[in-house]
Amino acid sequence: MNLFKCLVALLILTQPFLLNAQSTIGGTVSDSNNQPISGATVIVNAKPNIYNITNSEGEFNLENIPTGQYTLSISHLGFKPIKEQIEVNGTDRSFSYILDTDLLNLHTVVITGNFTPKDQLESSTSVSTLDSEQIQKVYPRGTANLLENIPGTFTDASAGEVFTKVYTRGISAAAEDDMGWYYVSLQEDGLPVSLVQHSYYSPDIFNRVDLTTNKVEALRGGSASITAMNAPGGVYNFISRNSSEDLNGEVQLQTGVQGEGNMLYRVDAVLGGALGNNWFFNSGGHYRHDDGARNTDFTFSKGGQFKFDLTKENSRGYFKLYGKYLNDYTNRYNGVAATNWDNPEAAFGQNFNNSALLMPSFDATIPDGRNLSEGGTNSFNPSNGVHAKDLAVGFDLFQNLGNNWSIKNNMKFSSKSANWQTAISNVFVSISDPTAYYLVSNGNPFPVGQIVFKNANSGAELARIDNSGIFSGNSSEYLTGGTLPNDAIMGTSTWYKDNTADEFMQQLTLNKSWDKHDLNFGFATGFSDTSVFTQGSFAFSTYENNPQMLQVTLENPGEPVMALSDEYGVSNYGGLFFTNSRAKISQVAGFANDHWEVSDKIQLDLGVRFESITHKGSNDRYAPFTQNGGLDQDETTAYDNNILAPTGEVDEFDYTYNYVSYSFGLNYKLTEDASVFGRLSKGNKAPELNYYFNNYANVPINQAGEVQKINQVEVGLKSILKDFSFTTTVFWSELKDIGISNFEYDGDTGSIFYTPILFNTSRTLGLEWETIYKPFQNIAFRFNGIIQDPKATKWNLYDAAGTADTADDSTVDYSGNTLPFNPKLMFNFAIEYSKNKVSSFLKWRYTGKREANVANAFQLDAYSVFDAGLGYQINRNLSANLLMTNIFNSDGLANFMGANSFGANANGATSEFIENNPDASFIVIPILPRATLLQLNYTF
pLDDT (tens digit, 9 = 90+) per residue, 24-54? Predict the structure, then answer.
């Protein structure tokens, strides 16, 4: 009896331990070739969830799992996920899993365009992804160059790494000049890179792609209206690497040859792992030295960035501290001269592949119009291009609150600056054109007589001319044997801009799941304190490949020598452009979205967003500084006689834009691997700061800008078959209330101005597709693209008749024409091969014919670009890759800037103009030339 009581007592005492017995689950994850998959996420749906990331051997280990029935989930980008019911009974268990390839990542969870992560197949959005492997197959020429691989996305990366253009579905009208990201949001880890845009200040200035980027998610239109801040055209989200239990990293060395032997040197590195006690870190970045794709006498790009994140995980979620420091110099290319409107050919000895026509490096000191009385100056060297600096620190948290509630908050502070020192414009100006002399000091005085051009570096005289006959219609005459190339100078300006912005942004999302609903609601805020200063001076240089700066004087017999430029060739100090403005931007948005699982097959997505954006700031009025002899009070120096400076008057603006956007989506699941979806969206686009900075020079800002309206409808199909996966989407998009203003130059008065704004409407109907076919284990075919019909349904342009005088102005109606700069056909086709240690690819990118202006008077021909790559896995840790882009050196034309004359624009090249000027030259911007890159990667 005593023995029986002892056994009962023992059972009672051990019962809690039996009930709480815990187990360890481990195993391996590999692909269909039996190769380990590193970085796969393994989750057991305990409360809270228990998860692990597979190491380099594909191994995982989940500890302290209580006895019970669970769902074990395994997922990794590029593979179909696995969900399996498992039983934990107090003993340790080991599993082995093989993941099948998910050719288009349709079973991958995406976060962009969704308030909570969604399986892409179940999402009613048009999202494409580029994983790290695909990113590494693209020659590193900047953000826009990478996004050329996204279906339905038009990119213009012809200027280089920055000053690029990206848009989708014909939502493009305000993104065709110098704000090429106008309608879309460029994001890093779910928050915008920058809150504001204006001329020469776009988010691509502050974004660089390197090994710290794990993947890119690209959302085209649709739910961008309710998930992004003032960006209804789409979202391009660059997502950083995930945390890992094991210490791991990668070092990449790259060297390349571009164009006519221009070199690129670059090093990337990334390191991550666990610090113990559920702390994890990632850090990395890059540095590069790039001579550029075209020929210049200076380094085109140099600098880099460093990024980090530090994550603490707990039983309910995580806390993450992250940051970035960018310190980078890069430049941008202007256009190239061409003739023959029917079949453009490079003119004046220039070359579509290699000509840059940028001013050479020199160190000038130009008076700062804002601080003339204090002797303020700005250093200027066109080799600096744009010096971008960005210091950003952020905090991201996610926590399960219990009872199916969770909270996520992502916030970031950044301090940005972008200092531009480069050339704007590079057009032909004949030595017999009065413009060449008027711009010395806006005609004060107008130099007439013997003009002497000297090489600014050596001081050697290149040419001496007599321009006395230009007012009577006669050509300038050479007085000695020396001549200038092409009998012209280059119409160019020193383009100095100082931009700064201190910004704070955040997005708070609360999630409540119950029954068949997944409700998300919250708010987003953004605050930016920004300023811009712009100053432009005329500069004398030769009009030829590799221009030389010209020191210019007026040397009439019996009269004192008059300096028309300084020793570097700079003239009309600060007399061409002046902007001194500042603004404070407040953006506040509230949103709600319900994802309703109506049935096992039907999911409904309903979202609404209220947004309020306030622009408060001011522009300085300005006038030429007047003083006998100019700033230096020297009658023999004409180049400082017309400096634009503040008058003390200020034009203020304070406008708030309130609007409501909504988006409704429906997803119908045909099978486990196929679904159809539809979406209706109404979005809005508030003006950017260029509306105030550009359009109200020296006049009151008497009205708010117009909010553009974007209406979109799309219907799509997503499917995964055994060897073939595809998505296809039919869309209709309409953009209304597009404010259009042209940049003009009045040759009679020397004034530069913007024409009054007219409001227009465009419509685009199209079909996007993305497919991959893998008929054999080692060969895959990728094919994506777009067919579209872009129309300018209502389109009027203001014709200033080439003068600032409004008496001869008129309006021209181009309604019904094809919308410019939108190809009707655009696609990427690639063949990929991999076996054992060898991999390779060949890609064909086709960009169809485009109208070069809304007058439809000139077309940019279709062009093709071929890229190729070859890779070899030397050993487990070391690999080598060879990349080539534009193998056949295609001279495709990406953009058109109008006639080859100072102040011209694309819309000025009407049918009448072309008919009357069949032999005229014009400015086009070619795509970048051939480049070859060798990569050496070491991973551990």
Answer: 888 899 887 778 888 788 888 776 677 788 8
Cα 455 → chain centroid: 38
Categorize the per-residue pLDDT at 80 as very low, low, confident or very high, splitting at 50, 70 and 90.
Answer: confident
Handedness of CA 359, 343, 786, 739 (dihedral sign): positive
pTM of the predicted protein model? 0.90
Q: What is the assigned CATH class of domain 248-939?
A: mainly beta
pLDDT at 749: 62
| Residue length of the chain | 940
Q: What are the tokens at 810? A: 């008129």
| Eight-state DSSP code of residue 348 | T
Helices (H), 121-230: 132-135, 143-147, 224-227
SS3 content of the chain, % helix, strand, coil (to 5): 10, 55, 35
Handedness of CA 468, 469, 471, 472 (dihedral sign): positive
Work out the pLDDT band at 108, boundaries 50, 70, 90. confident
CA distance 554 to 636: 9
Q: Which residues contact 455 (CB under 8 A, 6 or more apart)?
A: 462, 548, 549, 550, 551
Q: Which residues, at least 6 apart from 423, have a Cβ–Cβ distance to it below 8 Å?
A: 334, 358, 359, 382, 492, 493, 494, 495, 539
Sign of CA pseudo-dihedral 917, 920, 922, 928: positive
Sign of CA pseudo-dihedral 456, 495, 186, 505? positive
Class of domain 109-240: mainly beta
Domain 21-98 annotated CATH 3.40.50.150: no
**Would you state the torsion angle of the CA atoms of residues 204, 208, 209, 212, taken in this order, to the nearest 10 degrees?**
-130
Q: How confident is the model at residue 748 (pLDDT cuts 50, 70, 90)?
A: low
Identify the three-state secondary structure at position 51: strand
Position 20 pLDDT exceeds 60 = no
Query: Burial code of 596-629, b = ≥16 C-beta within 10 A, e = fewer?
Result: eeeeeeebbbbbbbbbebbbebbbbbbebbeeee
Indicate the domain borders of the chain.
21-98, 109-240, 248-939
